[in-house]
Write a structure and sequence with these properties.
This protein is an alpha+beta fold. It is built from 32 helices and 32 strands. Strand 29, helix 28 and strand 30 form a beta-alpha-beta unit.
Length: 855
């Protein structure tokens, strides 16, 4: 058998191309592709002993990385086809896991017939030389991309891919540090899973935060060989495991000034540490990444600067040391009216205005020469010779020898700014709706007025007033008309105050007037009453007149208080006291106001206890059928049995209940008690009794009636809906309150009857009577009290009765106190009567006695 290849000795290696003087590892393979010879050089190169590789069928798994797993098989195919030696370059793996690049010379071993018996391989480690070549290639590609102004992400991606090619099994990532938030965000990570990249985006810096957060925090490399066991990765190991990442080596990217720019990290899918070769690759990549980041940011900064120069709304002018114009931006052309070509080369005197003293310009030049900057306002003219005021902010750029190189001036047209400043001042100091001073500006004026008064030994009066039940006006007419009312009121104030008075809107519907130069309290009282009388005259809203009322309080300086804070507090207490007693008169501050306010506070506290302990009782006032003189209707009227004050009538505590949001609870008790009493009366007699209960507007506005199940309670007690009448006021059905309308219609649809109380004293809107399908109309007692044979009240009552009957409503007259009143009303066709002529409101037992006697 002829053997074509002898076991090579060093002296024979010269027959290999470019192998002179080089140590090669020699490996002999049998025809099955198994190692039969493995010399000392091979053992040194790969780290495996002959015993580990001899006849090992998995030799490719030992010395080949995953991406080169078919290299040995390819070599055998080439040997069988060529029957001659050839070179190949492959990546190989050493026993310690390093990735090396080797050049192989493979030569067949043939028998006498040319059949392949095996092969000889001579292997040279070319990693070092290839590393230099690859590193230079990566560097050249990165620099080429930088010269082409490619994006930072594109450049970093190329860099990472190069490193991944040089380090076996590497997965690269660059995180960029945001200096403002001190967090890391993704720069590039072409081969990391997207969900993992998202998870680490915004990573904070910290000594124990992963590899990258710790590396940037410490300013040095952090090697984590096993992510699952390292304490730095406790928070992130689950997501790392999901991404198939087992180790992470991170180096901070630090520029020459020592500023951390980000991190360069290498991940592997198995636990490992970097070799010296790996570390060298990473450090080279970190240097390139630093250059790429800084150069890209410098380019972006220059680009941004150019964009600002071209697109800023401020005019920018660049001049040389002799004030000759070198460059202007588009905004300059727009503001000044000159094209750049018309001003470049000319001095800045081209803009001087005759309105501006030339000394101002000379002063600007002197300051620029001496101090290097100037800021001020000057008059200039445009190309069309129109004058305008401009603000100049100029700074000098110096040469290295300290001489002036350029002056950069930022120019702002103040024409619109001054108008904007005036507008901003008005917006800051005046109410936008009423054009009156706002609270802040009013307090400034009040403070100044008190200083003048103190200096001149004069008095000052502070008047506060607001509109009573302004929310009812909004509910009745809508917020737009509410605003119209405020505007009209403000105009009356402006027309009514003198030069020595200062008015303001200090809150939603609360106004203030500072009154100075007063000669006497009598003059103050006369002026205040005249103002309030004018302010609260009827207002035209929606084509009709609307009467509004208000509460007011006055405090005097220095009598009530000698400082602004105290004067405000006194005026507010006076206003609050007026509101508490519903007084339409001007209320002057008195020292006992606090006592009255405390008394009211006590009453509020007692009301809470009354609700809790059910200290209320319902009295019933009969409503008489004026034809049959029988009683089948009654109005339920609440009484409060106060443990100290005795029986308190509703007009003394119901308004407080409404103001303190207690009316819903009280109303619930009234309804429940009325239903209970109805049930008792129906069980005792066969006759039908109908009870009317008064409902507050706040009960409807709270949207609570339907939800509390009033209708369901009637059904549970076996009562008919028509057994109950809800008495409402005109104010509840006027306006555009959808909640009120919805609930009224719901009750009406369920069979409850509606009675309109106090008709004739308010708006008397016929359309609302029709829209809400009322059952009863109650003539207010103010008409009945003055009723006589020849009175206007008689005519009005007759007209109301006729109108109601035409609309299908029954009429109840309340406040009947004489037989003459009853006779006139019955003659006019009134259906029902109510008043002290029949009976006052009575407890249940007395009411039952009256019913029994009349029925």
């Amino acid at each position: 058998m002829k053997v074509d290849v002898e076991m090579p000795a060093k002296i024979k290696y010269s027959q290999l191309p470019d192998s002179s003087g080089t140590d090669y590892a020699a490996i002999e393979w049998n025809e099955a592709g198994q190692v039969v010879t493995w010399d000392a050089a091979a053992e040194k190169l790969f780290g495996f002993s002959l015993n580990e590789v001899y006849l090992n069928p998995d030799i490719n798994l030992l010395i080949l990385p995953e991406e080169e797993s078919d290299a040995i098989e390819k070599n055998w195919l080439n040997l069988r086809e060529r029957k001659s030696g050839f070179f190949s370059t492959n990546y190989n793996r050493t026993k310690d896991g390093r990735k090396i690049q080797c050049r192989w010379y493979n030569k067949p071993i043939l028998d006498n017939h040319g059949s392949l018996l095996g092969s000889m391989s001579f292997v040279e480690d070319i990693t070092s030389s290839q590393f230099v070549i690859q590193t230079n290639a990566i560097k050249n590609e990165v620099l080429a991309l930088l010269s082409q102004n490619k994006s930072l992400k594109e450049i970093l991606t190329v860099l990472i891919q190069g490193v991944e090619h040089q380090i076996s099994g590497a997965i690269g990532s660059v995180l960029l540090l945001d200096g403002h938030t001190n967090t890391l965000s993704n720069g590039a990570a072409p081969n990391l899973p997207g969900f993992y990249v998202d998870a680490i985006n915004g990573l904070a810096l910290g000594d124990t935060i992963g590899s990258c957060g710790a590396a940037c925090f410490r300013g040095e490399g952090v090697i984590v060989a096993d992510i699952q066991s390292h304490p730095n990765w406790t928070e992130y190991k689950a997501i790392a495991s999901e991404a198939g990442l087992a180790s992470c080596w991170s180096e901070p990217i630090i520029n020459p000034a020592g500023v951390v720019l980000g991190s360069f990290a290498i991940y592997h899918r198995y636990p490992c540490v970097p070799s010296s070769h790996d570390h060298e690759v990473i450090l080279d990549a970190v240097g390139l990444a630093c250059i790429a980041i800084e150069k890209t940011r410098d380019h972006e900064s220059l680009k941004i600067t150019e964009m600002v120069y071209q697109h800023t709304s401020q005019a920018i002018l660049v001049a040389d040391a002799k004030t000759r114009i070198v460059s202007v931006n588009p905004s300059f052309e727009k503001i000044m009216g000159y094209q750049a070509s018309e001003v470049v080369g000319r001095t800045i005197e081209v803009f001087y205005s005759v309105r501006q003293n030339s000394a101002t310009y000379d002063e600007m030049i002197q300051y620029l020469v001496s101090d290097g900057f100037w800021r001020g306002e000057v008059w200039a003219h445009r190309k069309d010779r129109s004058r305008f005021l401009m603000s100049i902010d100029a700074s000098v750029i110096y040469n290295s020898d300290g001489s002036i190189f350029r002056t950069i001036a930022s120019i702002t047209d103040l024409t619109n700014d001054r108008a904007a400043e005036d507008l901003a001042w008005r917006q800051a100091n005046y109410d936008s709706l009423t054009a009156l001073a706002n609270r802040r500006f009013f307090l400034e004026g009040l403070k100044g007025a008190l200083k003048v008064a103190q200096r001149n030994d004069e008095g000052v009066a502070l008047l506060l007033f607001d509109i009573n039940k302004f929310s009812d006006i909004n509910d009745r007419y809508g917020h737009v008309q509410g605003d119209v009312l405020l505007q009209k009121l403000a105009q009356r104030l402006r027309d009514g105050v003198s030069e020595k008075q200062f008015a303001a809107r200090v809150n939603g519907n609360e106004f203030a007037i500072c009154m100075t130069g007063l000669s006497s309290t009598e003059e103050l009282d006369r002026m205040a009453r005249a103002l309030m009388a004018d302010v609260f005259k009827p207002y035209a809203l929606l084509g009709g007149e609307t009467q509004v009322s208000g509460s007011s309080g006055i405090a005097l300086y220095p009598g009530d208080s000698s400082d602004m804070t105290g004067l405000l507090a006194c005026a507010e207490r006076a206003l609050f006291a007026a509101k508490a007693v519903h007084s339409p008169d001007i209320n002057y501050y008195r020292a006992d106001i606090q006592d009255r306010l405390l008394a009211r506070a006590e009453l509020v506290r007692d009301l809470h206890l009354a609700i809790k302990h059910k200290q209320f009782e319902l009295f019933y006032q009969p409503i008489i059928d004026m034809r049959s003189k029988t009683i089948h209707k009654a109005e339920a009227l609440i009484r409060w049995h106060h443990p100290v004050r005795g029986v308190i009538c509703p007009d003394q505590f119901i308004p407080i209940c409404e103001e303190e949001d207690l009316i819903v609870e009280v109303g619930e008790w009234v309804f429940g008690e009325a239903v209970r009493q109805l049930k008792v009366w129906q069980q005792r007699t066969r006759g039908r009794m109908q009870i009317s209960i008064n409902v507050s507007p706040m009960q409807f506005q709270s949207s609570i009636l339907l939800s509390t199940g009033w209708l369901e309670q009637l059904v549970e007690q076996g009562l008919s809906s028509s057994d109950l009448v809800l008495e409402i006021t005109e104010g509840m059905i006027l306006g555009d309150n959808s909640d009120v309308k919805k609930q009224l219609h719901a009750f009406r649809a369920a069979g409850l009857e509606l009675s309109l109380d106090d008709f004739g004293t308010g708006y008397s809107s016929l359309s609302y009577l029709k829209n809400f399908d009322m059952d009863y109309l109650k003539i207010d007692r103010s008409f009945v009290t003055q009723l006589s044979e020849d009175s206007n009240e008689k005519v009005l009552c007759e007209a109301i009765i006729v109108m109601a009957h035409k609309l299908g409503l029954k009429v109840i007259a309340e406040g009947i106190e004489t037989v003459a009143q009853e006779t006139l009303l019955r003659s006019a066709g009134c259906d029902f009567g109510q008043g002290y002529w029949y009976a006052k409101p009575l407890p249940v037992d007395e009411f039952e006695a009256v019913v029994d006697s009349l029925n």
